[in-house]
Design a protein that fits this description.
Layout: E1 9-13, H1 24-33, E2 38-41, H2 50-59, E3 65-76, E4 79-86, H3 93-119, H4 126-133, H5 140-149, H6 156-164, H7 179-188, E5 192-195, H8 205-212, E6 217-221, H9 227-239, E7 243-246, H10 269-277
Parallel strand pairs: 1-2, 2-3, 5-6, 6-7
Antiparallel strand pairs: 3-4, 4-5
Helix pairs in contact: 4-5, 5-6
This protein binds adenosine monophosphate (AMP), zinc ion and fe (iii) ion (2 copies).
The site of one fe (iii) ion has 4 residues, from loops.
């Protein structure tokens, strides 16, 4: 949570390009309406939302700055570790090729999970999930929405708890992707890397490991972080001379509880300027 700091930048936002329910244009309009000075669009494993977002900003004089970003889901041991990249060059060929491979393996995984659900007696199909995904990327939230659409569960949370969460009967693990690979990929793409929501990492030892791998900053301000965690991560950032970030992990209405309020967490302009000043002599886009 944010304590007394004004929330002027929300640097963790999803759109329909991944598993959000609002388009990049709608997200930007919402950002202007709630008075944010800037947002980072950080879709999972895709940069497809950035071009429409830029075009929308170019043709509508909205006072909102766009940070081109990404969120890479990686695994370390038994923990999910998410790495955020800000100011990436979304035309970088190495980045685009890696993301394309990741998305293809996600499609294979979705097919396997849907097969398991069908074997469990549910009537859902790949085409239904694909059309709900509507874009570049298929993730478990889209499978959850298919189960909701058919009336098998009443929320995304219930779908994870009963069927598609880790250890549940229709779960299939993702491709192998390590935090250090994600950090390298973001660096290669000219961006700066942040450890997303450290408070959600099951095994805390990975926080220190990710710092040792050369992460540039920590996402300190996050809706599910307790004030004690915020204090602890601020101290950790200071100790290791890391940048500080924050964001709401906005996914839009109905996506999943708790991730429905744009600007609910974030950072002040002052903290944002520190992030910008770390950019290696990059022109503003
Ligand atoms: P995937 O990358 O396809 O494995 O899906 C993971 C995504 O599902 C995360 O990034 C979250 O957005 C969402 N998610 C994970 N666990 C839950 C949960 N228990 N309830 C709702 N959404 C979840
Ligand atoms: Zn998501
Ligand atoms: Fe995440
Ligand atoms: Fe996220």
């Amino acid at each position: 949570m944010n304590c007394d700091m004004p929330i002027e930048y929300d640097l963790h936002v999803h759109t329909t390009a991944s598993d959000g329910t609002l388009s990049p244009e709608e997200v930007l309009r919402r950002a202007a309406r709630v008075g944010l000075k800037g947002i980072a669009i950080t879709d999972h494993d895709t940069v497809a939302g950035l071009k429409p977002a830029r075009e929308f900003l170019a043709s509508n004089a909205l006072p909102v700055e766009l940070v081109p970003g990404i969120e890479l889901n990686t695994e370390a041991g038994a923990s999910e570790v998410h790495i955020l990249g800000y100011f990436i060059d979304d035309n970088n060929p190495t980045l685009l090729t890696r993301l394309k491979n990741i998305r293809e393996s996600r499609r294979g995984r979705a097919r396997e999970m849907i097969k398991k659900l069908c074997d469990l007696g549910f009537d859902i199909s790949y085409d239904q999930v694909d059309s709900l995904a509507g874009g570049d990327l298929i993730g478990r939230p889209h499978i959850a929405r298919a189960l909701i659409e058919k009336g098998y569960v009443s929320s995304v949370k219930e779908a994870f708890q009963k069927y598609i969460g880790k250890g549940r009967p229709a779960f299939v693990p993702r491709y192998k992707f390590l935090p250090e690979e994600a950090i390298d990929l973001i660096r290669t793409s000219g961006g700066i890397s942040f450890l997303a929501h450290p408070g959600l990492i099951a095994e805390t030892k990975w926080i220190g490991q990710v710092i040792a791998y050369g992460i540039n900053g920590l996402e300190v301000y996050y809706p599910e972080h307790h004030p004690d965690q915020v204090r602890g991560y601020l101290e950790l950032a200071q100790k290791h001379e890391l940048l500080v970030s924050g964001g709401s992990d906005f996914h839009g209405e109905g996506a999943s509880e708790g991730r429905e309020r744009l600007g609910y967490a974030g950072i002040s302009q002052q903290i944002y300027c520190k992030i910008r000043s770390r950019l290696p002599g990059k022109e503003e886009k």
